[in-house]
């Protein structure tokens, strides 16, 4: 029998029509759906009892109270208690699972190498000072005759609730400067004047934004100081002196004298607070040494604690302090993006919310406080290879036995019998004197917070300083741009936060720089182009964002360690095509 083309088409059409009336295609779709649900990497929702846990966020000194919604032992969402929680804190329960996280390292090998060299020229660089572990480092360095290094400590604290007018010269007051709950509560009572080159998020929310030419922030501060001393005239200075409750924020060296003339010391600006510390700790602690005061080529072993660092010291400031004959650098880090690039050993550490640590006072903390970041997830779940404990590592070098320093400090606070402890689960404040030591410790480890509100310390008036002569910003033909840095962000950020970096451009990604369209056009750089950022210190690779909000003559830079290594505030820079 010979089949024609007509027969073939009739057979094909019948087969297609018949397929719809058989279970084969529908079963295939069902099986495909079932198979896809069991593929590796497909998330499976946790199952179990739904309950709430409380802790304190350790990503920055704000130490915001956190209510975690948990399914079984797994936190699935975080929210602020009695105040706001920043976007970094809202997504912090993702951090233990971050793909860039450092999960293993040669802990035993690093321990042996440090023990071999530690007796000579050892130092600890603590990038989050003010914690109980900081006292462990100081005691260990005193025993080893080493150095305890830290960033410039915050010399004062600010009471925003006492201010009626605030002049911020480039400070991110409404974008991570202090404790969100305190700033939001005080915001409605003061007038904010933001003076800076870029219309930042704080400038957008300010009552008045004063656009400054890039690099003229210090000249603006000198103008205010001259007006207060009667040598010049300034409308802003007149506004600051009008209500008697004003102060100025910023990095210009003239600002302390401006605040003294405004009468802000003792009223708005007070001494920083600190929770009680056991007396034996104080007697056996090394002094805090500034890195700038360390002789060059004097550190043979440098231990760097990067856990929840609140600042970053560029490597070109650290490197000259190391000995030239094979120095040993060990960093305790969550990722390889920071000092691990320069260290012989990078040891993994616990990250929030799996670590147990107390939180240093924030810049707007005017009362002594003691808060503990309580783990929401066990480190063994997310880092099965094991983690290094910086306090135990350093303490063991000096023969200081491993002890519960947090409990020791809590017992010292309880023994004083002052202040109250707030428990977030029931929103109750209980006087410390009404609790026994175990009940007080239970309240703290349940996510509570101790505060002594009657211990505000008045800061003595600063001595008068001579006026600083007016100076123009440095000019450079080879480096025509002035760098404007984004506020410092936590080192480890939830991958979901890249929505802000890569899609909305509400924040500048850590490895990006932003240029005015005219500057980008002159350098032949398009949006998204790869380029190199050059300064007098060095260069690094960056990605360009073209943004008309950036003024001509400036380059806005992110906060990656590579950029911070070569680019400080108001650095001269240029951006060229890679």
Tell me what you see in this structure.
The structure is a single chain. The chain is an alpha/beta fold. Helix content is 27%, strand content 21%. It is built from 19 helices and 26 strands. The strands form 6 sheets. It has a 6-stranded parallel sheet. Strands 21-25-22-24-23-26 form a 6-stranded mixed β-barrel. Strand 8, helix 7 and strand 9 form a beta-alpha-beta unit. Helix 5 runs parallel beside helix 14. It starts with a helix and ends with a strand.
What's this model, at a glance?
The protein is an alpha/beta fold and 578 residues long.
Query: What is the percentage of strand-forming residues?
Result: 15-25%
Rounded Rg: 28 Å
Unreliable spans are: 461-473
> Using DSSP, what is the number of strands?
26
How is the biggest beta sheet arranged? Answer: 6 strands, parallel
Helix-strand category = alpha/beta
Large-scale geometry:
globular
What is the terminal-to-terminal distance? 72 Å
Question: What is the chains' assembly state?
Answer: single chain
Mean pLDDT equals 86
* Widest sheet: strand ordering: 12-5-4-13-14-15
Tally of separate helices? 19
Helix share bin: 25-40%
Give short descriptive properties of this protein:
single chain, 578 residues, alpha/beta, 6-stranded parallel β-sheet, 6-stranded mixed beta barrel, 19 helices
